[in-house]
Amino acid sequence: MAALRMTAREWGWLVALSVLWGGAFFMTSVALKEMTPFGLAFFRISIAALTLGIAVWVMGGAIPARLTDWRAFTILAIFGNAVPFCLLAWAQTQISGGLAAILNAMTPIFTILIAHVFTQDEKITLGRFLGILLAVCGVAVIVGPSALTLHGGQLWAEAAVLGASCCYAIAGVYGRRFGGYPLLIPAFMQLMIGSALVLPVLLLAGTPVRVAMPSLTTIACVLGLAVFSTALAFGIYFRILRSAGATNAGLVTILVPVTAILLGALILGDQLVARHYAGLVMIATGLLIIDGRPLQVLRSVVFRARNKPDVSGPAAPHMLNEPHKLR
Question: What digits encode the pLDDT tens for the residues 242-262?
């Protein structure tokens, strides 16, 4: 079976998704000042489910009725949003968003390992693995050493982010089985079930907010997380997953820190330093290696150059080069 490839359209969707998920780290950090991690995770998932539910209803979509479908979507919800959203929200109360971004960028590494075992068309290749590794190192260079400064209790938070990354990888590979459904149905079903799974955790943990009345900024961040960084983002994610596979869809976690840095420079006027440019070059090089087509073009050019006929040898005898003249 042929390996799945990324077209220019899929790369465009991937960049758009990285912008949506890149903003999620910022909005999460702001919202956590007034909300608890489990409260934020619940409202993010439930409002996103409501948003997609309205979209499915408007488009005339049908909710699957078979028990086997609900069981499969429950597994997808556990690994796709219920567990990782809670883990990431809690982790960002303990560690910086930069360190969380580095650890979250490990998702493609986990995905390529899981996909190699459980799929036929996403097997590990040396070039793909080296490309992902180079891109992850580029993320670490961009974020810089300051994000790696350790404080008490960070070990569990780091483990939580890695656990979330592993969950995303499992969900990506498992989510390929839902290709026969209308595009929004898998996203809606996993979010609807995910909200039901997180609700008991929220009730056991206590109040969802830290203040009597959240500010408008916090409310705006929660709505942005739910509508744009979750509902819209999952629709795009399943679009990429369906056409390009789990490994390629997982590359978005590498681009998330890049878009966050670039948006900060363009909108907030943040200054880019040498390590940012170096990291961008490493990530771009890694993604080109993963894509594979630039290397194929280079190999084709080298092959043609090696097999080009040699026309620089000794000249043929004069008598063979001139037309024969009758005397």
Answer: 888 887 887 887 787 777 677
